[in-house]
From TrEMBL:
InterPro entries: 4pyrrol_Mease, 4pyrrol_Methylase_sf, 4pyrrole_Mease_sub1, 4pyrrole_Mease_sub2, Cbl_synth_CobJ/CibH_dom, Precorrin_MeTrfase. The lineage of its organism: Bacteria, Candidatus Aerophobota. It is an enzyme of class 2 (transferase). It holds the Pfam family TP_methylase. This is Precorrin-3B C(17)-methyltransferase.
Amino acid sequence: MCTISWKKGKVNLEKENLSRSYRSHSQGRLYIVGIGPGNTSLLTLKAQKIIEESRVIIGYTTYIRLIDNLIKDKEVISYGMTQEVERAKYAIKRALSGDNVSLISGGDPGVYGMAGVVLQLLDKEEDRIKIEIIPGVTAASSCAALLGAPLMHDFVVISLSDILTDSKLIEQRIELAARGDFVIVFYNPKSKKRVRPLKRAWEILMKYRSGNTIVGIVRNAQRENEEVVITTLKNMLLSKKIDMRTVVIVGNSKTYTKGKFMI
């Protein structure tokens, strides 16, 4: 964990001992704030207002950097990847001390975000702090907008990360969604070490869908180095664009392309 001080727009990371105790008799506030895809033009007005009014900002380092123009005068604590529980615990601790805290979540905090982590950790603390969840634009929406209108009818969202969900259950959900002819949005499709889940998803889909099914692949949606590709299911695994910054949208039997759009 580290705090971030901001000077003339540059980020300075410094290790800090945060074991000191915080004491306050006032009721703290904990805002779990969705910042959308990371482009501040897509940040909701309420999210921006809450961040500006918060004294303490806590979040994953990448998300913190995306809102650096809003938090130059704040106390900022950043964490690395996979430290969601640590982030949530510290945010609760600071709110209990009487601080107004914004816990930053990419996309929408209720969609594979920080809201669930915080609420699961709470015991009796909810009576001592005010908690508010601020929605944000989730990746499914931001990516769909770049592709056209692939989510016009029924769709499902499935994360291929098996950190919190058993891989067999993930595969079962993919199979049911494929059989039901849903458009499927895959979050967290592939990492450097985790390649098999995407291949298994493809194998399952090929049992139920034509190889010519339309597939949209979006990397770094609404951010710098954004990449948008429309391909087919049979060629999906050939794409070099798929990683943890990518969302894959697999169309259903009615999905088609019109010009540059996926519909």
